[in-house]
Design brief:
Length: 364
Amino acid sequence: MTLSTLDETRVGAPRVAAPGTLALSGGVVVLPPAVVFSAIQAQERHPGYRHLLLPQARFARPRGMGALTPDEGTRLAPGGRPALRVAPPGRSLADLAADAALDLRDQLGSGALARTTHVIVASCALNEGIGDSVVGRMQYELGLQRVTPFALGQNGTLGWYSALMLLDGLLRDEGDQALVILSDKWLYPFFRQFGDLVGYGDAAAALLVSRAGPAPEPAAWGGVRSSALEFGPSIADPWADAPAALRDTLAPLAARAIRRALDQADLRANQIDWCVPPGFDPGFAARVADAASIPVPARIQHDGSGHLSSAESPAALIRLAGALDEGERRTVLVWDAALHGAAAAAVVDLAGGLDAALDIEGDA
């Protein structure tokens, strides 16, 4: 049986977010050009990373070094001609985040954003201007003054899931609303490719998360049923492992996160409509789905242009909601794994009608 793609399959529904749950509204995805990228490390060098040359910055460099060793060049090289989203020189992590935030304001109107009480920016890469506050720039660009800002890092690519768990505690009252922005751009000496397991691209996504009240939210297209984070033994040096060893470590961890998210949502694996994998190798995604007993007809096929880093899961949800017609509804499971030894999953109800803003900057 062949897998469905994101643009195939649809169905229908009432209110999407139950009272007291987290509701999702608005949705922007910023995608740089897709290019063939066969290198292992990010190729763009930027003077903003000069601090990494200092001896005391050793902890901030991948495995404490700069250039590849011969062993890494062999062990971590991708096969074939992998395509990744790569932002052009001069477009920083903060620029991608600002584009997503401003596009969201254009999509929803400044009045919708004015009700924001919290702003979260999540990333796993470092911004070029290491001393800049990316979340502070978002506040300035949008003119949001009375908000509580949060910057989430050190999560691998799981910032979206960490943000959901944080907001479940912060958004206590009906009407509380957070702007969530997820953005990454990779620069040398950080690694984009880990063999055939995964390649990390640049992207940004932005959306609003609010606490659903008793009355349906007309703008809401998503309702979060559950979100689960799983931590295994810490992988302090994933660059030292063979990609096959990372597969063996991460697959059962991801399956465990999926089962926890389903349990929290009080659903069985055969009750979800779609299971959306992150941009890992399809063989790894199938291995995780098998371990979590996900039925084959529910498995969505990834579009093949690499992993979108922190924006991966929210971008998939936004694109799926935008692909549904008005009145259609799906229950979707998204998941991801981080190479430091963690995984996460979430169950989200989606309703059609979102006019998703996909800012695709052209393919090279």
